[in-house]
Write a structure and sequence with these properties.
With about 450 residues, this protein is α+β, with helices and mostly antiparallel strands. The protein contains 13 helices and twelve strands. Strand 1 and strand 2 form a beta hairpin. The longest helix has about 45 residues. It is elongated.
């Protein structure tokens, strides 16, 4: 048997066979020496078998310990660990299989980690708030936008019930509705201390991967849409009101003229009808101008404009009106200031509106000052119109540029104003890439400051 190794399972069989042959030979008179040799060989095989089995037990023990240690490292998250055994080890094939499983787990874990990072990046960059609830209505995921929209101060809200974090019965009812009946529900939520902020919350059912039904909340800030809707409603109501008043007057006067042919009465009523028709014409013109500005269809002829010359012409035009109101114009604007880029007709309308408002809301004996404004680091040209009038209440300052918004409705309507002047001023400034600022104190006066870009060749 040169170089041939017997299988380990054949060793006990051969040893038993050798002992049997040795016993048989021992019974023969001339074969005792052969019997002794066979018996010795059988014992050698038996001893080798015992030593081999002992060595195998040692190998198995060491291999099993190594397998256990590797599995423990995998359980703790170390998927780089591998099992390396001797090729002769009976557990070597098992070790190779475990290594392949570990490699597959590592690749899958890396894919999941990348998916998680992408999901977190998407959720973080979203303007909409996202909240995911488990079947127990506890929070399992929330993005930063949701923290901001719902003004959630606590950073660690995972695992907490939704009602603990957002104390709103309407949202809680919507969540229970969709988890019980399916579908979606939409509710509006506002912070208790902020009236103008509105958050739209859409709740949808979410099937959990391990069973049960959860919910997903998608929240978005609809304050701007609600404000625009309110402004549209106010606009329609104001236009209707502004048109209804002169139309009612015209209708009444024409009926009276039909019944009363008196020349003096007719002359007076015709004059009033003309005034109301003129008011409606101005209103329609202003509305058309605003519409064209909003749709950027109003032509703007940008040329160099000399503001001191433009404003002086407006003061001359309004001089008689100011004199009859016992007001004084104080024009402190230097004659040589940088030219601005703009449409002279539109800019004339801006300053005509501002100075006319000052004349209208300044009591007799007051003063209206026009000065050059300055602001450190501002390359634009600024002109301020300051009066000593009745002033604007603080709560009205943010709304004076809205259409038809009047601080003193009675005085504005009596003067023939349409309530669109400052709205037009704001749009003209936007068309010129400029801006307008206002500050005021009730009883002391108001300052409007216009900033326009310089003209450059």
């Amino acid at each position: 048997m040169n170089g041939m190794r017997l299988p380990h399972y054949a060793t006990p069989i051969l040893a038993t066979l050798a002992l049997s042959v040795a016993a048989w030979l021992a019974a023969l008179p001339h074969a005792r020496l052969g019997a002794v040799i066979l018996a010795a060989v059988a014992w050698v095989w038996t001893i080798r078998l015992v030593l081999h089995l002992k060595t195998q037990d040692t190998f198995l023990s060491e291999s099993i310990v190594q397998l256990e240690n590797t599995v423990d490292r995998w359980a703790s998250g170390d998927l780089e660990a591998r099992v390396y055994l001797d090729q002769a080890d009976p557990l070597d094939r098992l070790a190779h299989g475990m290594n392949r499983v570990a490699e597959a787990l590592k690749e899958r874990t890396e894919d999941l980690e990348q998916d998680k990072e992408r999901l977190e990046a998407i959720l973080t960059s979203m303007a909409n708030g996202i909240i995911i609830l488990s079947h127990g209505l506890t929070i399992t995921l929330i993005n930063q936008a949701a923290y901001q929209l719902f003004a959630i101060e606590a950073q660690d809200v995972m695992g907490r019930h939704l009602l603990e974090v957002i104390r709103d019965v309407a949202i809680d009812d919507a969540v229970h509705q969709v988890t019980q009946n399916g579908g979606t529900e939409t509710v509006l939520w506002s912070p208790h201390d902020v009236d103008d902020e509105v958050v739209e919350v859409t709740v949808a059912v979410l099937n959990q991967p391990l069973g049960g039904v959860g919910a997903v909340l998608v929240a978005r800030n609809v304050s701007a849409q609600k404000q625009a809707e309110r402004m549209r409603q106010d606009f329609v109501a104001n236009v209707s009101h502004e048109l209804q008043t002169p139309l009612t007057i015209i209708h009444g006067f024409t009926e009276t003229l039909q019944d009363d042919p008196d020349p003096d009465t007719a002359r007076r009523f015709i004059q009033l009808i003309h005034e109301e028709a003129t008011r409606m014409s101005h209103l329609v013109d202003d509305l058309l101008a605003l519409s064209r500005m909003e749709h950027h269809s109003l032509p703007v002829n940008r040329i160099p404009v000399d503001l001191p010359v433009l404003i002086e012409s407006i003061l001359v035009k309004l001089g008689p009106r100011a004199q009859s109101a016992e007001l004084v114009f104080d024009n402190q604007l230097p004659s040589h200031i940088p030219l601005v880029a703009g449409d002279p007709d539109l800019l004339a309308e801006v300053f005509l509106n501002l100075i006319s408002n000052s004349v209208q809301y300044t009591p007799a004996g007051g003063m209206i000052s026009i000065k050059l404004a300055s602001e450190p680091g501002n390359p634009m040209v600024g002109v301020s119109v300051k009066d000593t009038g009745i002033g604007i209440p603080a709560q009205d300052l943010s709304r004076i540029f809205e259409r038809f918004y009047r601080v003193d409705r009675a005085r504005s309507r009596a003067s023939g104003g349409t309530g669109l002047g400052l709205a037009i001023v704001k749009h003209i400034m936007e068309l010129h890439h400029g801006r307008i600022e206002v500050s005021s104190q009730v009883g002391q006066g108001t300052i409007f400051t216009v900033w326009l870009p310089r003209f450059s060749d």
